[in-house]
Fold:
Amino acid sequence: MRTKSLKKNKINVVTLGCSKNVYDSEVLMGQLRASNKEVVHEEEGNIVVINTCGFINNAKEESINTILEYVQKKEEGIVDKVFVTGCLSERYKPDLQKEIPNVDEYFGTTELPGLLKALGADYKHELIGERITTTPKNYAYFKIAEGCDRPCSFCAIPIMRGKHRSTPMEELVVEAEKLAAKGVKELILIAQDLTYYGLDLYKKRNLAELLQKLAKVEGIEWIRLHYAFPTGFPMDVLEVMRNEPKICNYIDIPLQHISDSILKSMRRGTTKAKTTKLLEDFRAAVPEMAIRTTLIVGYPGETEEDFQTLKEWVKEMRFERLGCFTYSHEENTHAYNLEDDVPEDVKMDRANQIMEIQSQISWELNQQKIGKEFRVVIDRKEGGYFVGRTEFDSPDVDNEVLINAEDDYLRTGEFFNVKITAAEDFDLYAEVVK
Structure:
């Protein structure tokens, strides 16, 4: 007589999209581990949870393809169950249920307890800061708020993530302490909008005070700011950055465009003059600061004149770091009512022109670093090099420092002083200062 073997479930969490999704997956995995579930990240498992992105067309496409891939594996008997969570299923749940019914269940961005229940686990409120990090051991994404109250015309994030909700400071300090105890040395602060932090809880913008508290956490050496909205930027943050060595001289501030008519249509609440003044104030307050920004080209109604204004401004501002995206026409956003009138090939051409200008600026700025010394953290070994970053660089998006592994043996996660010996557009070559 045959008996059915009791197979132990292994839950594979697959993460798509931005660092905020990485954070959410890590929290989910921490909760599953606390319920004694076997959980892995992007490895083989008989139960699959796909944490999707629904931000722009490319990301939606990747999410749908990933769901279809695992549904196929389910049909072939390779996996037993497929669950979908995150932004795509928050935004399009009824459509997905109709089009891809073979998924066991869909969950939105705020339905973690329901997802855990479906996975046979309990949601534990007391697990503040408990998560299984999936990044290299020396850094972790650190979400300080969820959602967004901004009315930007092109953005679907409020639809998927809801209104802005700050996490209380005391909870964040506990979380930072737990991460530091695990060997994390760099906190990368993320939110849809860092600069709004505290308004809902403390009735004032409180990012500066939060930074001071986090800087006191023993073991944390770098604190980096991502996704700071320009309108209403709390200037006391610059004072903390200047006076507190742990706060990296780095800020990621998505500006999106600079033509006044486009900024107005985008509902950004600012102008070219105000934005330029803000960046001048940044550089006056913290002269060493590396400013990263992102821009959108091909927004509805963007004329050749608007684009030329943007292009000239990029040349003039000489950003240390810059990314450029083509506009994606997203349903249920304010801009969806406008005609998506810039042809795709024109959008691509404009994005390429901006990135060409930026490559040249980046190359010139990198040449100035040759012969200078920097403190770098080593993220990984790749090929014949140890790969590190300065405080002016964020993982995955910015410059990397390459150190020949034959010359020096370096431990990942440790800090070293190096001297830059050569530089390209986006890579620096260095040797360790003995």
Q: What stands out?
A: The CA atoms of residues 256 and 295 lie 4 Å apart. Confidence is low (pLDDT under 50) at residues 1-5.
